[in-house]
Write a structure and sequence with these properties.
The chain has a 6-stranded antiparallel β-sheet. It is globular and about 40 Å long. About 18% of the residues have low confidence. The N and C termini lie far apart (36 Å). The chain has 4 helices and 6 strands; from the N terminus they run αααββββββα. By secondary structure, it is an alpha+beta fold.
């Protein structure tokens, strides 16, 4: 297991991945295969609103696991935002197709192309632990459930895009 990474490094990558994810969600429902080419939204590592969003996401992770373990017919597209080492930084990337491994860790597939994690592409398998998770989401009847780290970014994107995304969130 890699040692925990500093909060500023986590935030630098969170800003990049969250910005890309917001735009990706606007264009297609569940996390897409590749989101390269979308604009990046920078978030300061001390941003209180984003820190609170991560804390809320981690505090409600049981909601994700409950749905993941026994989804209703209306619940699909379960994804986790996971941190991965990227040199002296960390990159947060949405992961889909999640499976629990016998050793207690998880296996999934990258839902988008990493920006800084070398040698990995969308669709590649990755292993991670629950401690690496910073956010979660799934779709319920066409609405996004979870996605707490997306919410603070709504003020940083064009109003029409933010409004469209809010309309797709179960709890905007």
């Amino acid at each position: 297991m890699t040692p925990p990474l500093s909060q500023p490094l986590k935030w630098a990558v969170l800003a990049v991945v969250s910005g890309v994810t917001v735009i990706g969600i606007l264009t297609i429902g569940p996390p897409p295969r590749s989101l390269s080419g979308y604009p990046v939204i920078d978030v300061d590592s001390e941003d209180a609103e984003m820190n609170a969003a991560i804390a809320r996401a981690r505090g409600t992770l049981s909601t994700f696991w409950t749905s993941f373990g026994a989804p209703t017919q209306a619940e699909t597209g379960h994804s986790l935002k996971v941190s991965f080492p990227a040199g002296d930084r960390v990159e947060l990337i949405w992961v889909a197709d999640i499976k629990k491994l016998p050793n207690g860790s998880y296996l999934g597939r990258l839902a988008n192309d990493p920006r800084d994690v070398r040698g990995k592409r969308a669709g590649d398998p990755v292993e991670f632990t629950q401690a690496d998770i910073s956010d979660w989401m799934f779709m319920r009847r066409g609405k996004i459930v979870g996605g707490e780290t997306i919410k603070p970014l709504l003020k940083s994107i064009p109003k029409a895009d933010a409004d469209a995304l809010r309309a797709r969130m179960e709890q905007p």
